[in-house]
Amino acid sequence: MRKAIPLVLTLGVAVTLAACSPAGSTTAGKSDDCTATASGAASKAVEVSGDFASKPTVKIDFPTDVTETERSVSIKGDGDQVAVERAKANVYFTLYSGATGEELSTSTTYEEAGIAPFPVDVELLPVGLVKTLQCSTAGSRVVGVVPPEESFADATAREQLGVAADDDIVFVIDVVSVDAPADPALPRADGEDQPAVDGLPTVELGDDGRPTITIPSTDPPAELEVAVLKQGDGETVEENSDVVVHYVGMNWTTGEIFDESWARGTPSTFNTGQVVPGFKTALEGQKVGSQIIAVLPPSEGYGEAGQEEAGISGTDTLVFVVDILGLG
Length: 328
Description:
The protein is mainly beta.
Protein backbone atom coordinates (compact mmCIF):
# COMPACT_ATOMS: atom_id res chain seq x y z
CA MET A 1 0.00 0.00 0.00
CA ARG A 2 1.32 3.46 -0.84
CA LYS A 3 1.74 5.93 1.99
CA ALA A 4 0.87 9.53 2.72
CA ILE A 5 3.29 12.35 3.46
CA PRO A 6 2.44 15.40 5.53
CA LEU A 7 4.01 18.46 3.93
CA VAL A 8 2.64 21.38 5.84
CA LEU A 9 4.34 21.22 9.24
CA THR A 10 7.90 21.18 8.03
CA LEU A 11 9.63 24.10 6.41
CA GLY A 12 9.89 22.57 2.95
CA VAL A 13 11.41 19.34 4.25
CA ALA A 14 9.34 16.18 4.29
CA VAL A 15 10.86 14.32 7.17
CA THR A 16 7.67 12.80 8.35
CA LEU A 17 6.53 10.07 6.02
CA ALA A 18 3.76 7.60 6.79
CA ALA A 19 3.52 3.99 5.65
CA CYS A 20 1.83 0.60 6.22
CA SER A 21 3.20 -2.40 4.28
CA PRO A 22 5.80 -5.00 5.17
CA ALA A 23 9.27 -4.68 3.70
CA GLY A 24 11.48 -6.95 5.77
CA SER A 25 13.32 -6.26 9.02
CA THR A 26 15.63 -3.31 9.63
CA THR A 27 18.31 -2.53 12.24
CA ALA A 28 21.03 -0.33 13.72
CA GLY A 29 24.44 -1.86 14.38
CA LYS A 30 26.63 -4.28 12.48
CA SER A 31 25.07 -7.26 10.74
CA ASP A 32 26.36 -9.77 8.22
CA ASP A 33 22.85 -11.13 7.72
CA CYS A 34 21.21 -8.05 6.21
CA THR A 35 19.92 -8.64 2.69
CA ALA A 36 19.87 -5.40 0.73
CA THR A 37 17.30 -4.59 -1.92
CA ALA A 38 18.67 -5.54 -5.32
CA SER A 39 19.89 -2.98 -7.80
CA GLY A 40 18.43 -2.91 -11.30
CA ALA A 41 18.74 -1.23 -14.67
CA ALA A 42 16.90 1.91 -13.52
CA SER A 43 18.90 2.48 -10.31
CA LYS A 44 22.19 1.68 -12.05
CA ALA A 45 21.36 4.25 -14.73
CA VAL A 46 21.06 7.09 -12.19
CA GLU A 47 24.35 9.02 -12.49
CA VAL A 48 25.37 10.65 -9.20
CA SER A 49 28.47 12.77 -8.55
CA GLY A 50 29.69 15.03 -5.77
CA ASP A 51 31.09 14.53 -2.29
CA PHE A 52 29.22 12.77 0.49
CA ALA A 53 27.16 15.15 2.68
CA SER A 54 27.07 17.77 -0.07
CA LYS A 55 24.29 18.30 -2.59
CA PRO A 56 24.77 15.75 -5.36
CA THR A 57 24.67 16.29 -9.10
CA VAL A 58 22.20 13.75 -10.45
CA LYS A 59 21.24 12.70 -13.97
CA ILE A 60 18.30 10.32 -14.38
CA ASP A 61 17.53 8.27 -17.48
CA PHE A 62 13.86 9.19 -17.42
CA PRO A 63 11.15 8.14 -17.53
CA THR A 64 11.84 5.31 -15.12
CA ASP A 65 9.36 2.45 -14.98
CA VAL A 66 10.04 -0.10 -12.24
CA THR A 67 7.67 -2.64 -10.73
CA GLU A 68 9.50 -2.84 -7.42
CA THR A 69 12.07 -0.70 -5.66
CA GLU A 70 15.62 -0.85 -7.01
CA ARG A 71 18.60 0.24 -4.89
CA SER A 72 22.18 1.06 -5.85
CA VAL A 73 25.11 2.30 -3.77
CA SER A 74 26.92 5.37 -5.11
CA ILE A 75 29.31 5.81 -2.15
CA LYS A 76 30.00 2.94 0.28
CA GLY A 77 30.40 3.96 3.92
CA ASP A 78 31.86 1.86 6.73
CA GLY A 79 29.80 3.09 9.69
CA ASP A 80 26.91 1.49 11.57
CA GLN A 81 24.43 -0.42 9.47
CA VAL A 82 20.67 0.03 9.24
CA ALA A 83 19.91 -3.51 10.37
CA VAL A 84 17.55 -3.53 13.72
CA GLU A 85 13.80 -2.93 13.57
CA ARG A 86 12.81 0.72 14.15
CA ALA A 87 16.38 1.98 13.84
CA LYS A 88 16.71 5.64 12.89
CA ALA A 89 18.76 6.80 9.93
CA ASN A 90 19.83 10.44 10.03
CA VAL A 91 20.10 11.54 6.43
CA TYR A 92 20.34 14.19 3.78
CA PHE A 93 18.24 13.41 0.74
CA THR A 94 17.29 14.76 -2.64
CA LEU A 95 14.06 13.59 -4.24
CA TYR A 96 13.36 13.47 -7.98
CA SER A 97 10.50 12.65 -10.32
CA GLY A 98 11.18 9.44 -12.19
CA ALA A 99 8.94 10.71 -14.99
CA THR A 100 10.85 13.94 -15.69
CA GLY A 101 14.15 13.64 -13.82
CA GLU A 102 13.41 16.95 -12.11
CA GLU A 103 14.23 17.61 -8.45
CA LEU A 104 11.18 17.89 -6.18
CA SER A 105 10.76 20.62 -3.56
CA THR A 106 10.86 18.19 -0.63
CA SER A 107 14.65 17.74 -0.64
CA THR A 108 16.71 18.62 2.45
CA THR A 109 19.43 21.19 2.71
CA TYR A 110 22.95 19.83 3.10
CA GLU A 111 23.67 21.64 6.35
CA GLU A 112 23.63 20.13 9.83
CA ALA A 113 20.23 21.68 10.58
CA GLY A 114 18.83 19.97 7.49
CA ILE A 115 19.53 16.41 8.62
CA ALA A 116 16.30 14.42 8.47
CA PRO A 117 15.66 11.66 11.04
CA PHE A 118 14.03 8.69 9.30
CA PRO A 119 12.67 5.97 11.60
CA VAL A 120 13.27 2.97 9.35
CA ASP A 121 9.93 1.38 10.02
CA VAL A 122 7.27 0.38 7.50
CA GLU A 123 4.63 1.75 9.85
CA LEU A 124 6.15 5.22 9.45
CA LEU A 125 7.87 5.31 6.05
CA PRO A 126 6.90 4.26 2.53
CA VAL A 127 7.96 0.72 1.76
CA GLY A 128 10.26 1.83 -1.06
CA LEU A 129 12.11 4.23 1.22
CA VAL A 130 12.63 1.48 3.82
CA LYS A 131 13.91 -0.82 1.06
CA THR A 132 16.35 1.88 -0.03
CA LEU A 133 17.66 2.48 3.49
CA GLN A 134 17.83 -1.04 4.88
CA CYS A 135 21.33 -2.54 5.04
CA SER A 136 22.88 0.89 4.27
CA THR A 137 25.83 1.98 6.39
CA ALA A 138 26.64 5.42 7.78
CA GLY A 139 28.81 7.27 5.30
CA SER A 140 26.98 5.74 2.34
CA ARG A 141 25.14 7.45 -0.51
CA VAL A 142 22.36 5.25 -1.86
CA VAL A 143 19.96 5.58 -4.78
CA GLY A 144 16.41 4.25 -4.65
CA VAL A 145 14.04 4.11 -7.62
CA VAL A 146 10.58 3.58 -6.15
CA PRO A 147 7.38 2.61 -8.02
CA PRO A 148 4.01 4.19 -7.15
CA GLU A 149 2.86 1.05 -5.32
CA GLU A 150 5.69 1.43 -2.80
CA SER A 151 5.53 5.20 -2.63
CA PHE A 152 3.05 7.89 -1.47
CA ALA A 153 -0.66 7.13 -1.51
CA ASP A 154 -2.19 10.50 -0.72
CA ALA A 155 -3.32 12.27 -3.93
CA THR A 156 -2.92 15.75 -2.44
CA ALA A 157 0.59 14.97 -1.26
CA ARG A 158 1.57 13.65 -4.68
CA GLU A 159 0.12 16.76 -6.30
CA GLN A 160 2.10 18.97 -3.92
CA LEU A 161 5.22 16.97 -4.69
CA GLY A 162 4.58 17.33 -8.41
CA VAL A 163 4.29 13.62 -9.23
CA ALA A 164 1.39 11.87 -10.94
CA ALA A 165 -0.30 8.73 -9.63
CA ASP A 166 1.73 6.48 -11.96
CA ASP A 167 5.11 8.23 -11.63
CA ASP A 168 8.14 6.63 -10.00
CA ILE A 169 10.16 8.68 -7.53
CA VAL A 170 13.94 8.62 -7.13
CA PHE A 171 15.70 9.13 -3.79
CA VAL A 172 19.40 9.98 -3.49
CA ILE A 173 20.20 9.59 0.21
CA ASP A 174 23.34 10.30 2.24
CA VAL A 175 23.23 8.26 5.48
CA VAL A 176 25.03 10.50 7.99
CA SER A 177 24.55 8.31 11.08
CA VAL A 178 22.43 5.46 12.41
CA ASP A 179 20.83 5.37 15.86
CA ALA A 180 19.53 2.42 17.83
CA PRO A 181 15.74 2.04 18.04
CA ALA A 182 13.87 4.37 20.37
CA ASP A 183 11.27 3.12 22.83
CA PRO A 184 7.93 2.38 21.16
CA ALA A 185 5.67 5.40 20.90
CA LEU A 186 2.42 5.71 22.82
CA PRO A 187 -0.81 5.29 20.82
CA ARG A 188 -2.18 8.55 22.30
CA ALA A 189 -1.38 11.07 25.03
CA ASP A 190 -1.97 9.43 28.41
CA GLY A 191 -1.16 12.31 30.79
CA GLU A 192 -3.33 13.76 33.53
CA ASP A 193 -6.12 16.09 32.38
CA GLN A 194 -5.47 19.78 33.05
CA PRO A 195 -7.97 22.65 33.42
CA ALA A 196 -9.00 24.42 30.21
CA VAL A 197 -7.57 27.90 29.59
CA ASP A 198 -10.08 30.71 28.99
CA GLY A 199 -9.95 32.27 25.55
CA LEU A 200 -8.35 29.33 23.81
CA PRO A 201 -10.16 26.88 21.51
CA THR A 202 -11.89 23.97 23.21
CA VAL A 203 -10.93 20.37 22.51
CA GLU A 204 -13.02 17.22 22.67
CA LEU A 205 -11.52 13.77 22.14
CA GLY A 206 -13.00 10.87 20.22
CA ASP A 207 -12.85 7.30 21.48
CA ASP A 208 -9.54 6.85 19.64
CA GLY A 209 -8.10 10.08 21.05
CA ARG A 210 -8.57 12.12 17.88
CA PRO A 211 -9.19 15.78 18.83
CA THR A 212 -12.07 17.93 17.61
CA ILE A 213 -11.25 21.65 17.91
CA THR A 214 -13.84 24.39 18.36
CA ILE A 215 -12.68 27.95 17.69
CA PRO A 216 -14.21 30.63 19.96
CA SER A 217 -16.09 33.58 18.45
CA THR A 218 -13.40 36.03 19.55
CA ASP A 219 -10.28 37.48 17.98
CA PRO A 220 -7.23 35.24 18.24
CA PRO A 221 -4.44 36.16 20.66
CA ALA A 222 -1.75 38.42 19.23
CA GLU A 223 1.08 36.43 20.85
CA LEU A 224 1.97 32.74 20.93
CA GLU A 225 -0.18 30.87 23.44
CA VAL A 226 0.64 27.35 24.65
CA ALA A 227 -1.36 25.34 27.18
CA VAL A 228 -1.09 21.79 28.47
CA LEU A 229 -4.31 19.78 28.11
CA LYS A 230 -2.83 16.52 29.47
CA GLN A 231 0.32 16.52 31.58
CA GLY A 232 2.55 13.56 30.80
CA ASP A 233 5.39 12.21 32.92
CA GLY A 234 7.71 10.81 30.25
CA GLU A 235 11.00 12.09 28.89
CA THR A 236 11.38 15.80 28.21
CA VAL A 237 11.51 17.10 24.64
CA GLU A 238 14.86 18.86 24.48
CA GLU A 239 15.91 21.49 21.95
CA ASN A 240 16.06 20.15 18.39
CA SER A 241 14.75 16.72 19.42
CA ASP A 242 13.27 14.06 17.17
CA VAL A 243 9.68 13.55 18.30
CA VAL A 244 6.79 11.24 17.48
CA VAL A 245 3.45 13.03 17.59
CA HIS A 246 -0.18 12.93 16.58
CA TYR A 247 -1.50 16.38 15.74
CA VAL A 248 -4.30 18.42 14.21
CA GLY A 249 -3.60 21.78 12.59
CA MET A 250 -6.52 24.21 12.14
CA ASN A 251 -6.76 27.70 10.67
CA TRP A 252 -8.36 29.98 13.29
CA THR A 253 -9.59 32.36 10.58
CA THR A 254 -11.36 29.79 8.41
CA GLY A 255 -12.01 27.01 10.91
CA GLU A 256 -10.57 24.55 8.39
CA ILE A 257 -8.18 21.72 9.21
CA PHE A 258 -5.14 22.12 6.97
CA ASP A 259 -3.12 19.11 8.16
CA GLU A 260 -3.49 16.24 10.61
CA SER A 261 -1.71 12.99 11.29
CA TRP A 262 -4.85 11.34 12.69
CA ALA A 263 -6.45 11.35 9.22
CA ARG A 264 -3.44 9.49 7.84
CA GLY A 265 -3.73 6.79 10.49
CA THR A 266 -0.14 6.97 11.77
CA PRO A 267 1.83 9.43 13.92
CA SER A 268 4.43 11.75 12.42
CA THR A 269 8.12 11.88 13.28
CA PHE A 270 10.21 15.01 12.80
CA ASN A 271 12.88 17.16 14.41
CA THR A 272 11.69 20.19 16.36
CA GLY A 273 14.39 22.23 14.64
CA GLN A 274 12.66 21.72 11.29
CA VAL A 275 9.19 23.10 12.00
CA VAL A 276 7.70 26.60 12.16
CA PRO A 277 8.93 28.65 15.16
CA GLY A 278 5.79 28.54 17.30
CA PHE A 279 5.44 24.79 16.88
CA LYS A 280 9.05 24.31 17.96
CA THR A 281 8.56 26.49 21.04
CA ALA A 282 5.34 24.71 21.95
CA LEU A 283 6.94 21.24 21.92
CA GLU A 284 10.32 21.83 23.50
CA GLY A 285 10.29 21.49 27.27
CA GLN A 286 7.15 19.34 27.25
CA LYS A 287 7.04 15.71 28.38
CA VAL A 288 6.14 12.55 26.49
CA GLY A 289 2.54 11.61 27.26
CA SER A 290 1.41 15.25 27.22
CA GLN A 291 -1.20 16.80 24.98
CA ILE A 292 -0.79 20.49 24.24
CA ILE A 293 -2.68 23.20 22.40
CA ALA A 294 -0.72 25.95 20.68
CA VAL A 295 -2.10 29.10 19.06
CA LEU A 296 0.38 30.62 16.61
CA PRO A 297 0.07 34.17 15.27
CA PRO A 298 1.44 34.59 11.72
CA SER A 299 4.89 35.59 12.97
CA GLU A 300 5.19 32.22 14.74
CA GLY A 301 3.90 30.26 11.75
CA TYR A 302 4.48 30.94 8.07
CA GLY A 303 4.88 34.71 8.37
CA GLU A 304 3.67 37.23 5.81
CA ALA A 305 4.15 34.75 2.98
CA GLY A 306 1.63 32.29 4.41
CA GLN A 307 1.39 28.78 2.97
CA GLU A 308 -0.73 28.93 -0.18
CA GLU A 309 -0.79 25.16 -0.72
CA ALA A 310 -2.36 24.72 2.72
CA GLY A 311 -4.78 27.64 2.34
CA ILE A 312 -2.92 29.74 4.93
CA SER A 313 -2.61 33.48 4.29
CA GLY A 314 -0.04 35.80 5.80
CA THR A 315 -2.57 37.05 8.36
CA ASP A 316 -3.97 33.70 9.52
CA THR A 317 -3.54 32.41 13.08
CA LEU A 318 -2.94 28.67 13.41
CA VAL A 319 -4.09 26.24 16.10
CA PHE A 320 -2.37 22.94 16.83
CA VAL A 321 -3.43 20.19 19.22
CA VAL A 322 -0.53 17.80 19.67
CA ASP A 323 -0.16 14.45 21.44
CA ILE A 324 3.54 13.90 22.28
CA LEU A 325 3.90 10.15 21.90
CA GLY A 326 7.63 9.53 22.04
CA LEU A 327 11.12 10.61 21.12
CA GLY A 328 12.57 9.50 17.80
